[in-house]
Amino acid sequence: MSQTTHQLLKNKKKNILELWMKNQLADEGLREDLISNDELRSQSEELITALVGNLSSGDFTNLDSDEWSPVIEILGGIAITRARQGFSPRETGNFVFSLKEAILEILTIELKGDPMKLFTESQKINRLMDNLSVVTFETFIKGREEVILRQTDEITEISTPVIRVWDGILALPIIGTLDSARTQIVMENLLQEIVETGSSIAILDISGVPAVDSLVAQHLIKTVSATRLMGAECIISGIRPEIAQTVVHLGIDLSNIITKATLASALAYSFKVMRLEVKKISAVSKS
């Protein structure tokens, strides 16, 4: 970009900012519940200041260069923040596109007497803003992927709780699809809890699992074997009829594993093994 155009845009920075804010606030899709006008202005002012200060650079294609680092850092931070706040890709994209419109409108007004220069400088701005849009989308997608990954980890952690139902007895109720990755987490959590509590019995309740394939069944058998190596006995409860049929059809041998129809029967069996007796106390008669 020529020095005169760079200086022109630098002098018109406030005009660009006001026009850009006007464009953004006119967008009916702007999420005022996610961002205040003051915060929007603060983000816009920070970016336009860094951008206009960098327009003297002749290279608008290599945004990986050090001279563009401040602009990319600010834009990336805004995109990541918006991804975490729940903005859509369209809303985030409009943030950059509306800035391009504001800069081109100012250029059109200021260079209307020199059509050739207006065309040349507009081409450069278009190229630059398109590259910045790509950076914005890439960063936004990366932010969303981080959010999804964190939520997946949290859901996985919540969906495989190891409960200490009695002194020496652990229960791990599993709800939902049980794949190889989740089965591995089940094993790790269960073994860790056995170490921490010194429990001798662990109950794997799969009554909330709709289906089990041969690979998952093998993982369950490995979990039982690993539990035994830790000095504890593992009981599988809540096997649905359709899962039982699948296990038989696949020829998977569970004869060495203690299985119970329900979690209650598995708990009753555990009490028996541990020589515990639970009695119902008769109601105390009122005098």
UniProtKB/TrEMBL annotation:
The keyword Phosphoprotein applies. It comes from Mucilaginibacter jinjuensis. Keywords: Phosphoprotein. Residues 159-270 form the STAS domain. Signal peptide: none annotated. SUPFAM superfamilies: SpoIIaa-like (SSF52091). The keyword Hydrolase does not apply. This is STAS domain-containing protein. Pfam families: RsbRD_N, STAS. It comes from the Bacteria.
